[in-house]
């Protein structure tokens, strides 16, 4: 056994018994409390230790050895009421199974398992009142009386997260397996300088709200070499919801994700929809996403406010995904809506870069929708390959969870100030491969499509400026179709032969074509 500190607190010396039906909570918590007074390592040896919620304090390493399992008990009475952040609001709910709260210099290490016993809690999700025990209904009523806010996702206070790092600094997690979380698996909130390395996150596909890792209003966070199989979003970055989060003003920032493998989940890396306190300076590199509903997903809606900016996604491989790229300003709201006044509740997404990405066996190439009152800005693609030939019936999923949008294989873009594509390859079984509506500036440089790609390859509707270069005419049909009175300048310089004859302008458009 290798443990990282000479001051060792072996839970067996405090009375913990492996493979016992009786909870070892008092023994383990006493060891953790004494360790926090002087610093050291709390050692969990091989065996299964049943326990109620635990709290880890300052200067403590909790080492869960290979073959050891911390098995959290299925008993709502064993979980005290605490105030925390739940789905973007500071509210009351159940104590997390394992909690690092207001602590510094904490490590969770070892090759053991931390199991939240989620099956016990999942049975109550969406159950009728007649199937929820009276005692649990009383607890939920207590939360509702204390909490000021409710919405369609207010079931979040019904179940505890497995592991939460709250208002803490210098925390690292490595080696362990975190599985079967009642709610979110790992939640980092109001914390800084957090490292998650070489960790396994495992939740069944049907685990309700079974997010893998949620980084929430925290900064200097590093996630690396981690495997995630989640029942919801795999890695999610958040900063609170609506007016409360804007007042709190704690962004999620300076976050890196690298060398991670996502086997399943609702999204590989997801930003939002709670992003009202801002999300910025995020880099995601060298990852694979397989069988996730979406790949990279940014979701928001009116009244969120906040800014998502300066995000970089590089060296990512995706396979069997409904939609690999989503930026959605209409999360659970209708896409075709009139402009509204711009105020503090109007969200902004800007400066998002996708490079060196391959997405195969996907249904829809991409979905990008800003708001008519505030276009999203600065979306760029470079060296990206998308094979959007998977049947639209392969899953039950729409691309972005925006209402009133009819799914197609092609990339869709609306209400974006500027979007660019450099050296991008797209294969779709239908036409168009790329569709732009109500967009100010589109740059397409080096777009490649198969020889048998259906025409037109690109359609424009009310697009102010379009630049096309390093592209080739289609063997049959137009390369580009333009319509709408707001479609104006189309530049075709630097292509493989003239594209002027491969542009069709609708009667409702006065667009001009420059092929010089």
Quick summary of this structure?
With 516 residues, the chain is mainly beta.
Description:
This protein is mostly beta strands. Helices cover 8% and strands 46% of the residues. It is built from four helices and 38 strands. The chain has an eleven-stranded parallel β-barrel with strand order 23-24-26-28-30-32-33-31-29-27-25. The chain has a two-stranded antiparallel sheet with strand order 7-8. β7 and β8 form a beta hairpin. The protein is elongated. It starts with 7 loop residues before the first strand and ends with a strand. The model is unreliable at 1-5 (pLDDT under 50).
Protein topology:
Blueprint: E1 8-10, H1 25-38, E2 40-44, E3 47-51, E4 54-56, E5 60-64, E6 68-72, E7 81-86, E8 89-94, E9 98-101, E10 104-109, E11 113-115, H2 118-122, H3 134-146, E12 163-166, E13 169-174, E14 177-179, E15 186-189, E16 192-197, E17 200-202, E18 213-216, E19 219-224, E20 227-229, E21 233-238, H4 242-248, E22 252-258, E23 261-272, E24 279-290, E25 292-299, E26 307-321, E27 323-328, E28 348-362, E29 366-369, E30 377-387, E31 411-414, E32 418-427, E33 434-445, E34 458-469, E35 480-483, E36 489-491, E37 503-505, E38 512-514
Parallel strand pairs: 1-2, 2-5, 3-6, 4-9, 5-10, 6-11, 9-12, 10-13, 11-14, 12-15, 13-16, 14-17, 15-18, 16-19, 17-20, 18-21, 19-22, 20-23, 21-23, 22-24, 23-24, 23-25, 24-26, 25-27, 26-28, 27-29, 28-30, 29-31, 30-32, 31-33, 32-33, 33-34, 34-35, 34-36, 35-37, 36-38
Antiparallel strand pairs: 7-8
């Amino acid at each position: 056994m290798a443990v990282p500190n000479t001051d060792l607190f072996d839970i067996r010396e405090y009375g913990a018994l492996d493979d016992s039906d009786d909870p070892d909570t008092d023994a383990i918590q006493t060891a953790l409390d004494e360790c926090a007074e002087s610093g050291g390592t709390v050692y969990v040896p091989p065996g299964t230790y049943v326990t109620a919620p635990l709290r880890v304090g300052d200067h403590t390493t909790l080492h869960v050895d290979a073959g050891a399992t911390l098995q959290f008990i299925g008993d709502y009475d064993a979980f005290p009421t605490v105030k925390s952040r739940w789905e973007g609001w500071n509210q009351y709910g159940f104590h997390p199974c394992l909690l690092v709260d207001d602590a510094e210099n904490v490590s969770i290490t070892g090759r053991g398992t931390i199991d939240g016993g989620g099956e016990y809690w999942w049975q109550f999700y969406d159950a009728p009142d007649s199937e929820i025990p009276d005692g649990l209904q009383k607890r939920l009523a207590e939360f509702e009386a204390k909490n000021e806010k409710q919405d369609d996702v207010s079931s979040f206070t019904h179940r505890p997260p497995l592991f939460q790092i709250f208002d803490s600094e210098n925390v690292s997690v490595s080696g362990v397996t975190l599985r079967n979380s009642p709610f979110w698996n790992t939640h980092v909130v109001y914390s800084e300088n957090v490292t998650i390395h070489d960790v396994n996150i495992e939740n069944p596909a049907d685990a309700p709200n079974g997010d893998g890792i949620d980084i929430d209003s925290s900064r200097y966070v590093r996630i690396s070499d981690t495997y995630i199989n989640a029942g919801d979003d795999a890695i999610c970055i958040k900063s609170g919801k609506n007016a409360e989060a804007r007042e709190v003003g704690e962004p999620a920032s300076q976050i890196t994700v690298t060398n991670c493998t996502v086997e399943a989940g609702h999204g590989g890396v997801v930003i939002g929809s709670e992003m009202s306190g801002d999300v910025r300076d995020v880099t995601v590199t060298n990852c694979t996403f397989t069988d996730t509903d979406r790949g990279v997903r940014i979701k928001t809606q009116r009244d969120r406010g906040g800014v998502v900016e300066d995000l970089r996604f590089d060296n990512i491989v995706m396979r069997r995904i409904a939609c690999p790229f989503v930026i959605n300003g209409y999360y659970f709201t209708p896409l075709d809506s009139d402009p509204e006044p711009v105020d503090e509740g109007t969200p902004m997404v800007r400066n998002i870069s996708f490079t060196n990405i391959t997405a195969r066996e996907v249904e829809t190439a991409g979905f990008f929708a800003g708001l008519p009152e505030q276009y999203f800005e600065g979306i760029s693609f470079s060296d990206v390959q998308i094979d959007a030939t998977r049947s639209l019936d392969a899953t039950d999923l729409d691309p972005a969870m925006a209402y009133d949008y009819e799914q197609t294989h092609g990339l869709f873009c609306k209400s974006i100030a500027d979007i660019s594509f450099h050296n991008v390859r797209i294969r779709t079984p239908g036409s168009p491969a790329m569709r732009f509506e109500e967009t100010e500036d589109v740059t397409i440089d080096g777009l490649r499509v198969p020889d048998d790609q259906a025409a037109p390859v690109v359609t424009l509707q009310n697009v102010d400026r379009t630049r096309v270069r390093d592209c080739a005419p289609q063997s049959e049909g137009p390369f580009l179709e333009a319509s709408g009175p707001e479609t104006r300048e189309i530049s075709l310089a630097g292509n493989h032969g003239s594209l002027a004859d491969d542009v069709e302008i609708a009667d409702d458009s006065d667009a001009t074509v420059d092929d010089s």
